[in-house]
Design brief:
Blueprint: H1 29-33, H2 46-51, H3 87-92, H4 97-102, H5 114-119, H6 127-140, H7 155-167, H8 170-187, H9 191-215, H10 224-243, H11 249-270, H12 274-277, H13 283-290, H14 307-315, H15 322-344, H16 347-360, H17 363-370, H18 374-389, H19 399-411, H20 420-428
Helix pairs in contact: 6-8, 7-8, 8-9, 8-10, 10-11, 14-15, 15-16, 15-17, 15-18, 18-19, 18-20
Length: 430
Amino acid sequence: MRPPRMATAPNPPSSSTRRSHRKSRNGCLQCKQRHMKCDEHRPICVNCSTSGRLCVFSRPALHVVQDRAGHGPSSDSRPSSATAASPASIGSSPRSLGAVIGSTRLDPSSHIPESQAESLPPQLYDLTHLELLHHLETQILRHEAHSLFPDDIDPSCLVDEVIQSAMSAPYLMDELLAFSALHLSVVTPDPSKKKDYHHRASQLQTRALTIFNTERPVVSEKNCMEMLLFSGTLGLHALFDTATFHQDFTEFLEMFIQFLSLHRGICTVTRQTWDIISKSKLRNVVSCMTEVERQDPQFAESPTECDTLLAKIEAARNSFDLATFRACHEAVGWLQWVTRQRRCLKLPLRIHAVMAWPVLISFEYLQALRQRRPEALVILAHWAVFLHYHREFWVFGDSGRVLIESTTKYLGSYWEDWMAWPNLAIEGSS
């Protein structure tokens, strides 16, 4: 296996005239780029919370022993005992949405420093929030170009149910407004307004997570609709933030793995109450979400796009431990399933099929990604092709292209044959 790229150690101060400060070796990337001392408070440091910036740590909180084999198909590399307590371990069998969110960088933590608490806006709503609510109602939930739902769903019913749910759950209201601000940051041409909307989105998301973290609601028949809407919107928000982080591949990939863990975990939890939700007024909404998860991959017609990848995984079987081989083989099987679903479903539902893949992959596959196993990275790049195919969906944007190009550069020429289809996909649409 190719070892992960290690960050170079910071150079010592070159001059005694420059005021020295204690380096924070494990600080977040934003503080390092801004040459500020980071308090290393996870998942959001005080500096990033105060400035409304996206806080990302390049080093995990727990040390993970990683394999340092060669560049060819990876040799056996089992997760160390240290990885057992990693954030994704909660995602393997989540019991509550709070536990899933609390295991990722999104959680503002139950302990919020005084300076951070002062930087958060109080839960008051003004004209700017009305603007965001109006945009949510008239554009995101109703406009067919931005819709995630098929034409046969009554938009008025959708808007009424979403707003009614948000009125009884402040954390949902704030996250919906944050999502609206996020969309405005994309469609607004004015650069200064883009920055302002993105800042509002960050603030509102932090406030939503703080409220959620304080309440720690458990999914029940009474609040299942609010939890479903909150988790779904939060997952899309996290993907957008991940997709816009176009810097070092190691940090970009770490954020992507965090997103996969979060999305997989929250969908697993909320699915526990889908029987209740399916009897609600939004049964048509959830039915379109669950429709894409019903068929087992073994019954799917094998699409040609992933046949070559599956054959390569099987040929390299001896280089895997059994659990990792099964995880990668299964992940490719679900890619075949996504391909088949995209051929059969209407356009809005194709996006749900693409977003279903992170829910269907196994915990062992996520571990292989964390270890930077080349085969696992290649599989992720194949999923990124579907993100690229739906790049007109504003949340996806150019995330697929960035992930494919970054993976190709990271793996190098040895894996060029494995990466042939993803690279062909982005070259053919450029």
